[in-house]
Amino acid sequence: MAIADYDKIIALSPQASDILIERGKVKLKKGDAKAALSDFNQYIILNPQSEKGYVQGGYALTAQVKYKESLASFDKALAINPKSPAALLGRAMNYANQNEHYKALLDLEQAVALNHQDPDIYYQRGIVRMARKDYIGAIIDFNETINLSPQFMAAYQQRAKAEIAVEDYVSAIEDLNEVSRLSPQYADAYYERGLSRMTIKDYKNAIVDFSKAIQKKRTNENGVLPTRHVAYLSAQAPKRHRRPQRNAAHRPPKYRCLSIARQRIYGATRIQQSF
Description:
The chain is mainly α. The chain is built from 15 helices and no strands. The chain has helices at 3-12, 17-29, 33-46, 52-63, 67-80, 85-97, 101-114, 119-131, 135-148, 153-165, 169-182, 187-199, 203-220, 227-234, 253-265. It is elongated, with a radius of gyration of 23 Å. It starts with a helix and ends in a 10-residue tail after the last helix. The relative contact order is 0.05.
């Protein structure tokens, strides 16, 4: 339902507290965290013994980068219901945002034990394990995420990153194929797949991916790019032995690497090292 629909229900029944939660979730999804928090606080007034308002309030505060207040909200939720997977997940995300990955992992272990059917919990644990450089553990978590939610695009992307970290480039390419299928406009999928293909010496397809990465980057921004990058992003693939341009210093780091990679593939004899 749209926010206006929730407004009508609340106007007719001000005590319909669950509608406040649902309306707040919609507001939060639309990026209006302050308005969402207001709804969650109203819910807390009507239901002070329910953890729901504190959990959702914690998410709204996290969205505003108010980690201290967010942590307090999740703690209140867990004081009411220590077995709330949503509160444990939220607090874990809060810890992870502050690089307290060990604490985050402890909360996520509890959350998985309480609810082993929630793909978001496995996904977040995979993210935390990636941060701790436990790439095999991360792959296992992303596997479970995908088993529970086959359309979870971010899980394929993160699993590919973990596979690249353990040098399993063939599996990474398969996952990035799925990312590009689920989100065709996502430029980074083509870029990362191009790097993986280059590593296994599939140069022809790597060139195609790098070209798509440039094209999709342009499409995503509707053709409006910083002037200093337009020439490069619009350029055609360099010819064999073409001397690289000297103005590469202003290129974004990722696309700077892309330029080097493409020239290597085409057999460039020299690559400027001035950047």
